[in-house]
Structures are given as C-alpha cells and as structure tokens.
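I would like you to sit down with the record closing this message with an eye to the fold:
=====
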Amino acid sequence: MSALWDRLAGLELTVEEYALERLELDVSSGFFRVSTVIRLRGGGADGVGEDVTYETPDHDLLLRAGTGLPLAGSWTLGSFCEHLERLDLWPAPPAREASRRYRVWAYESAALDLALRQAGLSLHERLAITPRPVRFVVSLRLGEPSSMAPLRSRLARYPALQFKLDPTNDWTPELAAEVAATGAVESLDLKGQYKGSVVDVAPDPELYELLLTTFPGVWLEDPHTGVAEIDALIAPVRDRVTWDAAIHGVADIEALPYPPKMVNLKPSRLGGLRSVLAAYEYCAAHGIEMYGGGQFELGPGRGQIQYLASLFHPDGPNDVAPGGYNAPEPAAGLPGSPLTVAVEPTGFRWSA
C-alpha cells in the first residue's frame, strides 16, 4: 500500500453531476489535437481532469454519449476510484488500449481536485510536501524534412530554452552538428519503444552513431532494444538512458532491461492515482531520478502535471513546458524555466 495514497484515499467526496467539454488546437508537431475536460460538481465546488486520448473519434464518441455514468453519490476518494474500476468508461472500445488509462486518470484527477476543494485543502498540504519551482524543457520534432527552422525560431524569441528533441532518420551530420552547437539540447527522444503510432522511428544504427558522437552528454530516452547493433552502441552509455513509453506502473520499471538511472513518469500513462503515487515512492526508495512528461494537454491537465513535478521532481528535465510552446509559432511573453510555483489555494490546480 502506498503511504502517499493513504493520505488521500480517506478524503470525503460528494458528486452531484458532471459535465464534458471539448478542447482542440492545431499543435506544432503537425496534428490536430483534441482533448476532453471532465468536470465533477458537488457541494458548491467543481473538480477538473483532462482526458488526453489521442484519437479524435474517441473524444467524439464520449461527447455524443453524454454524461450517463453513475457517478453521483457520497464517497471517499478511495471508494470513488474503486467504483470507477467497476465502470466501463468507454461508449465503444478505444482505438488504442493505452487510452483506457488516460481516461481513468482524467476522472480520478477530477475527483481528487473536487475532494480537496470540498475539504478546503491543496494537494501539497494534504501530502505535506512543499512545492518548488519546476525546471522544464520543450519537446520538439524538427519538421518534415528536418531542419533548424523550428529550433532557431524558438531560440530567437527564448534564447535560454532547453529542449527534448525527437531525432528522425533524415537527420544529417550537418544538421546534428548545428543543433548540438546551440547547447540547448537536454535530451533526445529516440521513440524506440513506440509501436504502431504516428511518432514511430524505424531503428537505424547510423542515426544512433551520429547522435552518440554529436551529443555526448545528453539524456537518451526510449532507445530501440533487440537490435544487436543498437544494443551494442547503447551499452556503454546506459547511465544516460531514460525510459518513458513502456512505463505504466512499478512492474514496468522493474522489468526494464537494466536498472534505470532516470525515468519519465507520465501520470496519464500510469493511469490511476494509486499507480502514480506508488511509482513516485518506488523511484524515491530505489534512488531512481524522475522527470515528468506531457501529452499535449490543452486544459487543466497541463497544470496538474506541473503541480506534480513541483512536488516530486522539480529539478528534472521535465517535459511539462507551458502549453503555449506547443503552438506552431509560440507567442511572446511565455513563462521561462523554472516555472514559478503557481498552486491554487485549494484543490489539484496550477494557475495558468
């Protein structure tokens, strides 16, 4: 049992009704992003969470189905989450199984927010953890074909930015050298653990040789495994390897091919609150560094992962930049890193 979860599970929760709200944005990585805000209401307060499922038809089905789930009642946070486990949150099966976890996270984070607001408490007060400023990086792919333009335009406006870049197999030695010369790359997301997604990158040992030669000090997220040439290249630099896509809970951390020095814990990917908190505790107990990752949240979900980062891994290379950096051309005046603590007086909320 998670000691952190024990501090939250007993919170009293009254739900009278709930509502759904669609959000959408044309984001920088070349796709039209849709998410759904879940708003639980009760006792004169509301609590919000965000479903970050990637497939637009899944959101369309949710909104057409409406608010027919039996959520009303008097609960504890723990009993409400147990109730959710017994419900089918999907009007039709999702396009991807991973989306089931995203929706659970949306409902449970909304319930946490509402329970805390009804109690007049903030999350950090309930957990007895002091929030700290959050260091962040900006996640970016360099276009099709890859070029310096996306990186150069952001650095021109925000010269202190640091990045987590997605290298693709069209990177040339000249481009890699120019990118490295900026000194702005914190990590490289190799996308080697994604299967059947729009961001998959085919394993290419030549790309790995180029990256390892050109970026000798950066973090390497999600390398391909099971490809002999790539495994041999990665073996000497395992201390720089971090993991993301395969991690849905503590069991997945334990099943990694070798003990990690650092992992990316995405709350929505881990699913429920208990799984998220257990992963934080496991990493802390085993000396594993952590950072947080976003899923192109468009609404309150972004602030919630920033809030969690402020409590559990404020100094990591957190992929939790303010949402404005996801725009094709980020506007002027966005907050820089580290983010100033912006927790609201009650609930599970971080002010935009």
Summary: The CA atoms of residues 48 and 129 lie 22 Å apart. The chain has 13 helices and twelve strands.
